Amino acid sequence: MMKNEVNKTVTAGMALIASTLCMGTTLAAGDGSDEPGFVPPPKNRQPPPAPPRSISSAETYDPCCCCPITPQARTEAKKPPQPPVLITKLKAEDAQPSEVKIPNKR
Amino acid sequence: MKSFRYALFCLILPLLSLSAQDDIDWNATPNDVNNLLKSMKEMIDVNYSVQVATLSEIDADPAKNPILYRSGHYNFQYNDEQRKLIREYCLAGGMIIYNTGLGSAPFYRSAVRELGKIFPEQPVQRITSDHPIFHAYYDVDRVRYMPGVKAAGYVGDEPWFDAVEINCRVVALVSRWCMAVGWEDNVLPEYQAYEPVSAKRLGVNIFAYSSAMRAWAKSQAHAIKFVDQPEPSADKVAMVQVMYDGVWKTRHAGLSVILQTFNLKTDVPVKYAVKELRLTDPAIFNAPLLYLTGHEFFTLNRDEAVQLKKYLENGGFLLAEACCGRKGFDLAFRKIMQALFPGSPLKTVPQDNAIFHMPNDVERVGVTPVLQQALGSAVTRPRLECVEIDGHVAVIYSPYAMAGGWEISQSPYARGYDDVGSQRLGQNILMYAVTQ
User: Which long-range contacts (CB under 8 A, 24 or more apart) does B77-84 make?
Assistant: First the structure.
């Protein structure tokens, strides 16, 4: 009986936090989605390119569980030379509060 | 137990969606730069790569990350530390580009607002179609837009870039309409974006421009600045640089340098510190010489125009120069002169005028590579225009650049006289102004 009460309280608490977060997301906290001229990101988002293959298919095969870790033979260059970096694409700093969305102005 | 799981799900879902939104903001078009670089390889045979980093991972040395690119749809703002980093990076030769994802206005407004805070001394201004960035590789002063741009209210076929220019170099650029979906070849009619061909050409031009300017900017960052000598002197030539709405200060050291060389050449005591005043300031009447320059089209308000006319009619002297030989300024200046003095239009100064012979004999001058291309010759007769009022020359105008030559640091895209030619001509103009 007591356990049931605790469960109900925890569930209600979590639901409250969840709804607060949901509301925050919906209202978007001043991110501009409610401002004139806002255009959401495209829906037909293309996936980013797959990283270049640097191992042959044979190398993915594990012949046995106790074989030495080092492959016996390598047949191709592992990393092609990288051209110089010209552009740095800036990503949002999620983990840091520095580049933040503007708080809700309403 | 079921309700507990449901609550847990509800708790995680918004967190996931927040994180997805952050990712989709800066990376809504994950293949944009990659695809552009691939296109650049095919179009102009250059091979570069892209890296992804947060702003805090950026080195202020542009050699390590030559161009920064930020795309987005939502509002954003930087903290003071980040603004300082971007400023330091840009002034050292770097360039930051903001792409407005699908023309989303909140992102565009944020970018312009932030640049205003990062570079408070230089306004963010839309650059006109004769800007070298639209001609650095391809001529893209006219572009094709997706129908969504017209639906958003913009009618026109000129590209729309706002920029911060410091010392004749674009250090930060905001594209009002989206280039990224064009780079990705992923466009729909309703997108507020450039068509892929235009977007790619603009991209190539931006990166060609940035690369050409970076090497120059490095040396230019160390340009000399002269300061006033402390000892007082009664007879000094003080030059006033005219401030107006727009980018009125294109070079920061050129005037000081020409005044210094003028002093060495002629022994006229020169006040090195140049005053910067608006035309509405009555203090302009104390200055024997005004200097007006810029890149883009501009206008004077009624009060400024009235004051300038009064100043010139009272014996004042105006030296104007289209910095980098830009057509926007040229057009604006001619329009202003026409409005002020309709009976005395700008006319070419004849070659036998003293201005070409004192203190230097300047029969012919060398020109910058870009002007050489336009004129078809590396040497030309200097071209100055003037406005005469009641028999005295009140205005001298150079449609070609001189300030870059005064600083001995020509922009690679300047249409002007070479260093020696600019300095000799500049000295002559100053001499003419003080001896009239």
Answer: B77/A99, B77/A100, B77/A101, B77/A102, B77/B110, B77/B113, B77/B114, B78/A98, B78/A99, B78/B114, B78/B117, B78/B118, B79/A98, B79/A99, B81/A98, B82/A98, B82/A99, B82/B55, B82/B56, B83/B114, B83/B117, B83/B118
